[in-house]
Write a structure and sequence with these properties.
Blueprint (H helix, E strand, L loop, with lengths): L3 H10 L2 H11 L8 H17 L6 H13 L7 E5 L5 H12 L4 E5 L12 E2 L5 E2 L10 H11 L5 E5 L2 H4 L7 E6 L4 H11 L3 E9 L5 H8 L1 H8 L6 E2 L7 E4 L2
Parallel strand pairs: 1-2, 1-6, 2-5, 6-7
Antiparallel strand pairs: 3-4, 7-9, 8-9
Helix pairs in contact: 2-4, 3-5, 4-5, 5-6, 8-9, 8-10
């Protein structure tokens, strides 16, 4: 079996989009941090992926980080992550939050996915997806240790529990949110409670935009109207990429 670190390096060599996105991040005009800080951040996120098993791409993280860093400093609010697995994305986003002088609130059960009756599906990318309870479990201690070693754990507040139990009491303004929750039911819950907290101009990202059941939620006008309390927002990447960006305008 090929060691994980070697597999990761080989995978990077076959993902020119990640290289292109790194270059784009380095030269973006809407990101206000110095070039050397951007370069250091890119190096850090690749290093984290060498040490922590991650299910996202660097291209996706860089897009979210750019949204965090492009948010005007005077716009108050936190960054939110829902679904952190083993803490790789948390470590990366915590470093972006530090650069932006913001806090990161992390929601996760730390028990993996909840039990679900959502049927198997084939993604728009042609992949088979079948989720079951306990999948993508990252133990609380493991996540904390990974973020402490590779990110900025002092920037984070961890909210342990199922989303339907923890999110109704969340009352902070949000500037950027990141959902990596896999299930349509969890996507509904997160959007229902987080999008109304999103500041005007803020963005909520879903990494599950390749899944037909999640797409159905994102496109459901009745859900947006009656459960979220607003019309469906503009979305970038819907039905074309895994990462979908919803903008509060």
């Amino acid at each position: 079996m090929i060691p994980y670190k070697l597999r990761y390096v080989l995978a990077c060599l076959n993902k020119p989009r990640d290289v292109t996105s790194a270059l784009r991040f380095l030269f973006r005009r809407d990101v206000s941090i110095p070039f050397i800080a951007r370069l250091r951040y890119v190096a850090q996120i690749y290093s984290i992926s060498l040490h922590v098993w991650c299910v996202h791409t660097e291209e996706e993280i860089l897009e979210i980080a750019a949204a965090i860093l492009a948010t005007p400093p005077e716009l108050e609010g936190v960054v939110v992550e829902a679904g952190c697995y083993k803490g790789g994305s948390t470590a990366k986003l915590s470093l972006a939050a530090r650069l932006a002088n913001r806090r990161l609130v992390v929601f996760d059960s730390f028990e993996g996915l909840p039990d679900t009756d959502e049927p198997p599906q084939r993604s728009i990318l042609g992949e088979s997806a079948h989720f079951k309870g306990g999948l993508y479990r990252g133990a609380y201690a493991e996540v904390i240790d990974n973020v402490r070693r590779f990110g900025d754990v002092g920037r984070c507040r961890f909210v342990k529990g199922w989303f339907e139990d923890t999110m109704p009491g969340f009352a902070e303004d949000v500037v950027v949110g990141f959902l990596d929750v896999d299930l349509a039911s969890s996507t509904r819950t997160c959007i229902k409670f987080l999008f109304p907290r999103l500041r005007v101009g803020g963005s909520l990202f879903s990494q599950d935009g390749h899944l037909p059941l999640v797409i159905d939620v994102l496109e459901d006008d009745e859900f947006w109207k009656h459960e979220v309390g607003r019309s469906k927002p503009p979305m970038d990447g819907l039905r074309t990429t895994k990462l979908v960006r919803m903008v509060n305008r």
